[in-house]
Write a structure and sequence with these properties.
The protein has 506 residues and is mainly alpha-helical. 62% of the residues lie in helices and 5% in strands. The longest helix has 31 residues.
């Protein structure tokens, strides 16, 4: 009997894995679809690509610019072999897809999902608009999804199999993750809440505290030594954190500060640009957990099942990030837990066929939004701009705020970004021949080019990518604008049919 039961479970696991892998293949197709036509979508992506190349040549001056040194070092290793930005982009996309796979496999195992349910979860989470967008750029978000999945897997295992070794594995993943994205610091309060609920006495061990502190301090010590070796101050990484808290002055858009309370920003974003099923799943999960708590199904000191565990993560992330400056990427850790809550709560209140039907409709809506928000604006116009400049022998070009042109220029061409119109006079004296009025200035909220934009250009191109609502929302953290105000700026920008305009510097 035991052998037959084990064989049956093995077949179920194998079947579920095949369903999950098939769904993950679908996610990969969506993430990689027309990627060569997309280009690097934002300033930070292009800058990260450039910094990785600089580091590959021995210049580490911007190692801590993002507060995520391991991310830049990782891609510096890639830059040793190639400068083709599409290789960087594809690798980043594959890391994000891998993160989706690890997360969904973990949830499917502990929640004992069927094969179709596991596939539905994978497709629902993997086709998130924001996760698809961030899986096609060159920022730390995609690899952060993978690291977050590993952190959750290790912490959930620690709660269900208490032990000092399990705690140290969690702390190890946290230390590694913070090297790739400083925003993993925001996971620490949530881990503390969950550990306080667990209350299993492990943290009374003084030796455990000492080992935890050593593990958390190790990356800062290692990168401190590395900083000295490459000619940087040992405290450069810690200085980054200080700059995040104590903002010296306004940025180029005029915004200053990190605190901005708006409790409805992410609700509006999830309702308008992600699947409505995410918010429904969050509400139903909260009701189920409340009902279970009232009936004493969940008691302090007992390890939480996967549904309430993920509810704590999703709820705390949404609430906590509603206090600071906003952008959809700021809740990048919440999208997969929200998708899981939708499936896990749905299977508790709906027949299996109804749940799968609803999930498929939600996935279809996600794909439609991806088509409308991301694919419909392809291909990027920057290769055409670069071709025009190369045909006219331009070697020195200025660009207003945006850097989307940089990956398409030849090695003998120089692109300099300006944030003020008065900078152009100095560039003219240095031999710069052209300036591209890049509509990215509208995205970043840098309104400093009134005279230039009322001048007749020598060439101009449409650029629908610069009108994407998601691109504007992703920059609301930089501009400090709210959800409604940001979309109003996007609609104003969309009225400009030729946002890329080229002028000769005279």
């Amino acid at each position: 009997m035991f052998s037959a039961t084990s064989t049956n479970k093995s077949h179920q696991t194998a079947g579920r894995t095949l369903w999950l892998l098939a769904a993950l293949l679908g996610v990969a197709i969506i993430r990689l679809w027309r990627l060569p036509e997309a280009g690097l979508p934002d300033y930070d992506s292009v800058r990260n690509w450039q910094v990785a190349q600089e580091m590959a040549q021995g210049n580490f001056s911007r190692l801590f610019a993002l507060g995520s040194p391991a991310f830049l070092l990782f891609y510096a290793g890639v830059a040793v072999f190639t400068r083709n930005f599409l290789v960087f982009q594809t690798l980043n996309a594959l890391l994000g897809i891998t993160g989706v796979g690890f997360f969904c496999a973990w949830v499917a195992k502990y929640a004992k999902l069927t094969g179709p349910e596991a596939a539905g979860l994978t497709l629902l989470g993997g086709t998130s608009l924001l996760l698809t967008f961030s899986g096609r750029d060159l920022n730390p978000n995609a690899i952060s999804v993978l690291l977050f999945s590993m952190l959750l897997r290790s912490h959930f295992a620690r709660l269900h199999k208490p032990g000092a070794a399990a705690v140290l594995r969690v702390v190890g993943w946290l230390a590694v993750a913070m090297c790739f994205n400083f925003k993993f610091l925001f996971t620490i309060p949530i881990l503390i809440v969950l550990e306080a609920w667990q209350a299993d006495g492990l943290w009374r061990q003084r030796t455990l505290w000492a080992r935890v502190l050593v593990i958390l301090a190790a990356p800062y010590l290692i990168f401190g030594v590395f900083s000295v070796i490459v000619g940087l101050p040992w405290y450069r990484w810690l200085g980054f954190y200080i700059r995040q808290v104590i903002v010296a002055g306004p940025n180029q858009s005029g915004h200053q500060g990190t605190v901005h309370i708006d409790l409805l920003y992410y609700v509006r974003y999830l309702a308008g640009y992600e699947s409505p099923l995410l918010l429904v799943g969050l509400a139903v999960s909260a009701w189920l957990v409340w009902r279970g708590w009232r009936s004493e199904m969940f008691r302090r000191g007992q390890a939480l099942p996967v549904l309430p565990y993920l509810l704590v993560w999703a709820g705390c992330l949404l609430a906590g990030m509603s206090i600071v400056v906003k952008a959809p990427r700021e809740i990048v850790f919440a999208y997969l837990p929200l998708a899981a809550l939708a499936v896990l709560s749905g299977r508790r209140v709906l027949p299996s066929w109804a749940l799968l039907g609803i999930v498929l409709v939600a996935v279809g809506l996600n794909v439609f939004r991806i088509q409308q928000e991301l694919y419909s604006s392809l291909p990027t116009p920057y290769p055409r701009v670069a071709a025009w400049l190369q045909a006219h022998g331009a070697t020195k070009v200025a660009s207003t705020v945006g850097m989307g042109l940089a990956p398409y220029l030849d090695g003998n061409q120089t692109l300099t970004v300006v944030n003020r119109e008065r900078q152009l006079a100095g560039l003219r004296q240095q031999g710069y021949e052209y300036v591209l009025l890049d509509g990215y200035w509208r995205v970043a909220g840098v309104h400093q080019f009134d005279s230039l934009r009322h001048t007749t250009p020598i060439a101009a191109w449409p650029a629908p990518q610069l009108h994407q609502p998601l691109l504007f929302l992703e920059h609301s953290e930089y501009t400090g604008k709210g959800f409604t105000e940001t979309l109003a700026a996007q609609r104003e920008a969309a009225a400009d049919s030729l946002p890329l305009r080229l002028y000769r510097l005279r």
